[in-house]
Amino acid sequence: MKGIITIGLLVLSNVFMTLAWYGHLKFKEFKLFENAGLLTLIFISWGLALFEYFFQVPANKIGFQGNGGPFSLLQLKVIQEVITLLIFVTFSFLFFKNETLKWNHILGFCFLILAVYFIFKK
């Protein structure tokens, strides 16, 4: 159960992280933010990133073996990276319609799957 909670929290964390890091690139399409300066965008992104930490920190605390969780530190990091890329790819295809998935992207994802396999191999 701790593993599922950890992964769920990591997914939520990465949604906020992706919005904080890349969401501002679409803000100019909204009337409220069309003239927002860099400092404004930084503070908005910083506010979104705060919510990232509300999920990231508990995810790592619950999931870490040293706290009774199911994952080693390396496993937590690899899980987080794979989730980050999945969320980012989904985000980029939903909000940035000009992005395309190419063969080298698919190959890269295959290598990530292999990384997960080797990190979790006993």
TrEMBL record:
Keyword terms: Membrane, Transmembrane, Transmembrane helix
Where is the chain membrane-spanning?
A: 36-55, 76-96, 102-120
Species, as recorded: Flavobacterium nakdongensis
The protein's name is DMT family protein
Q: Name one Pfam family in it.
A: DMT_6
Task: Report the domain of life of the source organism.
Answer: Bacteria
